[in-house]
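Session log. Operator J.P. requested a structure for one protein chain; no other inputs attached. Running the standard single-chain path with token output.
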Amino acid sequence: MAPDHEVPEAVSRLPASYPEVAEPGSYRPARWWTAFEDPTLNLLVERTASENLEIAEAAARVRRAAAQARLARSALFPQVNAETNASYSDSSLSGSAFGGFGGGTLSRLEIETYSARLGASYELNLFGRNQGDLRARRSDAIAARADLSAVRLSATAQTIAAYFEIVDARRQIELAVRNADVLGDRVERTEDRYRRGLVGSFELYQIRQQLRDVQASLPLREAALEATEGQLAILLGVYPGEARKALEGSLTPRLVFEPVPAGLPSDLLLQRPDVHAAWQRLESARHSIGARRAERFPTIRLSGGIGGQAGTPQDAVDFGQNWAASLAAGIVAPIFDGGRISANIAAARATYDERAAIYARAVLTAYREVSSAASDYEEKLQRYGLIHAQRADAEASLDLQSQRFQAGVGTYVAYLDAMLAVLRVQSSLSTAARDVALSRLGVHRALGGDWSPGETAEQEDVNQVAELPRPSGGAK
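Structure written below.
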């Protein structure tokens, strides 16, 4: 009695392609971060997958949802119970009709009864109420599994982002220290020239201010690095000291500039875990409507049992002589319930409408995020290329000033200024490289998908009670 699929209008109008994506092709996201060829990064991602506490929470929710689905399935089967009973009573016969038994000598009555019984009950689910509840719980279990994939994706993305933030932070601190050393030398030279009247006080103060700015930035950079290491520690489920041990040594990820094939927008409907979870919750609400509608109709309950009853335990299990059997059937139909069933149907329908809107919003958000991430990736690549060319010019200028100084036709101050220019460009290039990596991460995150190939125990648990239906209509 569930209603037919109603694909939200926004989903049925899903565009056939991404205008911002130039590279066609199938998207295969599994372990894409290995392209950076950084064993430290690979190890961090693996530790996040196995030790992250948010992933552990989501995995527990998957197991709970699978158990709830099995609980709903149990209503489709007969319930069989074994039962044994023993009773004893000792009552007075005084003043009763039995008081004269035995010539008036019998004043009390003792009774012992023992029974052993095997009983069964079953509800004929003719109108699909239990099946509807089961399908709803199955969809909830699949949604919980998709939520687990979303948490894995988020935790992995945060780990990768934190790693590249740490790589850039370390590089920035290193360059800031070198910059301070060069500026310190530059200040000494400027002070000497100022004493000789070759430069004015403004230039001297300006160089000193640059040195103070660089020196003042170091504590902030170190604090930011420590904070990022703390965030990474939480992602790994460890304390900051343990996270720093995992980051010992040089961190040198290789930059990747290849385009990311995004596939088709329709792939997002099953590829993005948040979209898939929203769809499954919509399916759960749809089946709940059918289950609530079925409550309007009669239910047929069957029950029966067989066993023995006697005055001693031995005779109670002598089923050949003291057996007893029972069989009962009943029909229960709602006549008047004060509007309870109608209210439940209306509530289920409202829940369905709510989840339809959530699903449509999830699809629109996914499409926008892919388009934005693809555009941002292209822009970051262009910016990196421009800064890389700028570094080549700065290094050529530094080489020229070095040659001029060695030849005696240039000044050491000019050489120091050229070196400062190179350091500034290197700082900008490090940030640009980080931005390229984070932007590429953004594309992969927007496209979604399972980043850890292979089926987990939680997936197997859900698969025992649920199949993965593909959305119909516009949600293919």
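Operator note: The domain at 9-76+150-296+340-463 is CATH 1.20.1600.10 (Outer membrane efflux proteins (OEP)).
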